[in-house]
Recover the amino acids of this structure.
């Protein structure tokens, strides 16, 4: 995984969760067809590993996110209670929704829906994590601006979406013209 953006790894950064604003998180997740949210999951597992000294592998936990994300959500929920940040979601509920969203990716949803499908189940946890960071580490960076690298990935996501849409339109047209 690439290094975190400069504004997300400042000296003295004691934010317990991966710092990213909710708006940037939504834009990047939707714009990269869901890929950014895996980066977010990786960043959160890294911080958990560092904070707890646990022998967990952020890479493996990210690769198997549909099966491991419950523990991250549960730890975020516990962290919210410790920081006295109110939550209105359950870790198991979000984990089940996330698992179903990942299954939906394999049943042929349109490409442009991939980002929103992956965003919706994790958005409540991300919003809670951002609130925890703001409360317990008010001086830590917020990672709210889109960097040049972010823009590159957004353009690649848009180009991929356009290409896949064009290809699916061509396949639909060929199937209409083909008669067995």
């Amino acid at each position: 995984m690439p290094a975190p953006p400069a504004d997300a790894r400042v000296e003295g950064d004691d934010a317990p969760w991966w710092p990213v604003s909710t708006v940037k998180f939504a834009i990047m997740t939707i714009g990269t067809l869901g890929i950014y949210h895996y980066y977010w999951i990786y960043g959160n597992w890294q911080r958990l590993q560092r904070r707890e000294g646990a022998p967990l592998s952020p890479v493996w936990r990210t690769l198997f996110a549909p099966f491991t994300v419950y523990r991250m959500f549960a730890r975020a929920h516990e962290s919210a209670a410790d920081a006295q940040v109110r939550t209105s979601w359950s870790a198991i509920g979000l984990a089940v929704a996330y698992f179903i969203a990942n299954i939906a990716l394999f049943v042929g949803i349109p490409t442009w829906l991939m980002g929103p499908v992956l965003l919706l189940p994790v958005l409540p946890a991300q919003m809670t994590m951002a609130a925890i960071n703001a409360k317990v580490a008010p001086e830590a960076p917020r990672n709210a601006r889109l960097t040049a690298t972010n823009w590159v990935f957004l353009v690649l996501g848009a180009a991929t979406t356009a290409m896949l849409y064009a290809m699916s339109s061509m396949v639909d047209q060929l199937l209409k013209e083909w008669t067995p």
